Amino acid sequence: MTAPTQSQQRPGAGQFFSAIPGAGILLILMLALFTIANPRFVSQTNLVNVGLQASLLLMIALPMTLIILTEGLDLSAGALLGLSGVIVAEALLAGWSVFAACAMAFAISTAFGALNGVLIAYLTLPAFVVTLGTMGLMQGIALVMTNGDPVGGFTPAIETFYRSQLWIFPMPIVVAVALYAALWLLLYRTRLGNYVIAIGGNKDALRLAGIRANLVHLAVYVLGSAIVGLSAVLLIGRTNSAHPTVGIGMEFEAIAAVVLGGTSFEKGQGWLFGAVLGALAITVLRNGLNILSVDSSLQVVCIGILLILALLIDRARKHYSR
Amino acid sequence: MTIPATLDTRSPSLSPDALALLGRLILIVLIAGALTAVDPGFASVSNLLNMLRQASLLFLVASGLTLVIIGGGLDLSVGSNLTLSACLAAAAIKTTGNPWYGVAVAVTSGTLIGFTNGLMINRLRLPPFLATFGMLWVAQGAAYWFMAGQTIYGMPMSFRYFGTGFFLGVPLPIWITLVVCVVCSIILHRTTFGREAYFMGANQTAALLSGIAVERRRLLLYVLSGLTAGIAALVYLARLNAAEPGIGEPLLLPAIAAVLVGGTSLFGGSGNIVGTVLGAILLTIIVNGLNLLNVAATWHPFVNGAVVLIAILADFIVSRRRSESG
Fold first, then answer.
1. For a tag on chain B, would you pick the N or C end, based on fewer CB atoms within 10 A?
2. Interchain contact, B129 vs A141, CB within 8 Å
3. Class (C level, CATH) for A44-321
């Protein structure tokens, strides 16, 4: 079956504003609502808190954007976050240096990314089931390694890093901004980035143009898993302990953030900044509901409703602008 | 473009599918034989019946999922649908004392969740895995919120009969499995709707162009998947005699694995419900065997994940061979 050809656009100003709606409108609405409901919402400590939470979510949502741009999905990201944290913690407890422990987590994450990538890119298996399967593998290994219990008592260096600041900015926010900048450059300023977007648009065309499309496709999954694996270091620094199931559900929030931001599952249509908008919207929603003391399990339901609202707004806008 | 061999919607009791089913049956017998060699207690009637009862619980979750996957969709929310339906039903039975209210609540909530999935996919044009993945977390969250950290236990005996009772010496869940299996078979192979489901799964565009009301059929498929999850919730509740928000989550991977191991292709358009029965039995035997070999329960997610990966690899190899020879 031939897919329709389509033009690849770089995000210009026009695309910027037409893509803001869903998440942007809801974000502004929520900021206003929560401020009226409780002025403590805009206090400096709370806003820094929102930034910290959003940056952790972004560490998964940014690589997830790249994967979704290739018409793929990574349901194993949350489980990998848990597994990688457990590996770092166990390695530190075994007397490894921080660098060696991180290298180990990096190696294992990359290997799992490669497994996902080979099955999805080379064997053309559906991403959502492949990553569901590897999710089971990762979750299982993390559970077997820890017997289901949290691992703590490793060197405080990780927590010190999490709590450190670059000038006045907390380290997790600095890391997230740096990651955004790096991925932005990769996606919009390199040839590899063009190929990544082209895979979602028309992988066959890319292959026919003489590009090793499968290799690029594989690289997206490897890169995504590597980033998620290293983000686990920040996550275990936050509580100074590694819990095998801590990341479960994070993949849902990351995917929700990407979709909220206006990135579509079809034809590589999307943009990196959408993940930032989406992650902020989800974090603001959670934080605001926390202040209004809404139960955390009900917050998940609210994220689902937010997602559907944003999609409805986007559909309505498309309908009326036609 | 080559027409996939899976477009053939004749009754799958014909040769290739029958052979595939026979192969799975032989595999089951071989594993069972090996386990009996390790521990003769495995082959006792009580252990076999117990295992079939476990398998029938898994099958009930996977049955509606099979229909959806044949129709070219996917339902990742079956596990948490079961959780929420079971929790709501338990609360209804506990407060009214009448099991039939529980049955009504579980069936309604299961069906409604399936209906919502179908609506999201039809109206919002969401990919099925995304819509049902969102529903997974929403239903799960709703269940945790509803239960507020509590466990509801102690169902009336008349209700527990559905999960623990025997009829003619065979556990009741196995009878329920038989009924659901026969009904699904009739739907798939003896109704226009079933044929259209295979057609939609094989080539959705062609189905749409031939005038099939694809959206309505799709909605019905997701409703059926929700309904079977609701029925499964009742059997689970009757068997466990308790409801808490963690019961359904670990079922998703085994359910998908059961469908795939049963020979239903993830790419839609081929497969059958008897395969899912065998897939459920195969998975249950594997877990039972691990327990027999004293493997810790923490290994279960790993094993389920590995089985899913192996099953899609096998599916990939089989479908490529078919399209090459076809």
1. N
2. no
3. mainly alpha
